[in-house]
Design goal:
The chain is mainly beta and 232 residues long. The chain contains three helices and twelve strands, in the order βββαβββββαββαββ. Strands 3-5-4-11-8-10-9-6 form an eight-stranded antiparallel barrel. A two-stranded antiparallel sheet has the order 2-7.
Length: 232
């Protein structure tokens, strides 16, 4: 039996056998706890019953961000490679009262961190805070922006609080999610002062190739087949 508050953790890796589904939902601040509880109940009661389920992390947005689910599924056949999560892998039904902002399938392209470049641990102990660096791209430009990211993002390692940078490309070719894990966000202001990262100017390495947005989150729950970890 899966145990609650069991220090459950996920490993972000570029294993081709793992499919990553990322969904974002528009949720008012006053309803975020309700939405997270609904999602936890659905994941533990429904997703855990599916053979392909590996685990999921629920993220509570700061400020304008709602909530997000970062879920890992096992590819059961080589031919299975959808652009969007099939209904059985989506929280849309469980969170029907909250508008869906994004629902896409991603592959993990590359990982940069200060400990193990083959994987990033997603847990309350390792990194309780997270950010999405969201690059909206034309499909023909996705590879170019990924190459630019590979050449520039490593400069940020060592910023206060930043634990890892995990680059995901959407299967539909229209989105890149630079998923950062943080111990704290103290280094965010310093990041924006670096050459190639000066937001609000043309001195950003993706200038002319992508539109960029940023969302900040706090980890709200980690659910695996074996356990459930929540704050406190």
């Amino acid at each position: 039996m899966a145990s609650e508050n069991s220090q459950a953790r996920l490993t972000i890796s570029n294993d081709p056998a793992i499919i990553t589904a990322i969904e974002r939902f528009e949720v008012d601040e006053s309803r975020k706890d309700d939405a997270i509880q609904l999602a936890v109940r659905y994941i533990t009661g429904t997703w855990r019953q599916q053979e392909a389920f590996i685990g999921a992390a629920l993220l509570r947005g700061r400020n304008h961000s709602g909530i997000s689910c970062y879920a890992q599924w096992r590819r059961l056949t080589d031919a299975f490679s959808p652009d969007a999560p099939p209904p059985a892998w989506s929280l849309a039904a469980a969170l029907a009262e909250f508008p869906t902002v994004e629902s896409r399938i991603f592959s993990t392209d590359f990982i940069e961190n200060l400990s193990d470049p083959t994987g990033t641990i997603l847990s309350f102990e390792e990194a309780p805070h997270l950010h999405y660096g969201l690059f909206s791209v034309k499909p023909e430009n996705q590879n170019k922006v990924m190459d630019l990211g590979r050449g520039n993002s490593g400069k940020l390692l060592g910023m206060p609080g930043l634990a890892s940078i995990n680059w995901h490309r959407s299967i539909d070719g229209r989105m890149i999610n630079n998923f950062g894990t943080w111990q704290h966000f103290d280094g965010l202001q310093q990041m924006g002062q670096q050459k190639g990262f000066r937001l609000g100017t043309t001195d950003v390495y993706w200038h002319g190739w992508a539109d960029w947005d940023n969302e900040l989150f706090d980890l709200a729950a980690v659910i695996t087949r074996e356990g459930l970890s929540v704050p406190g």
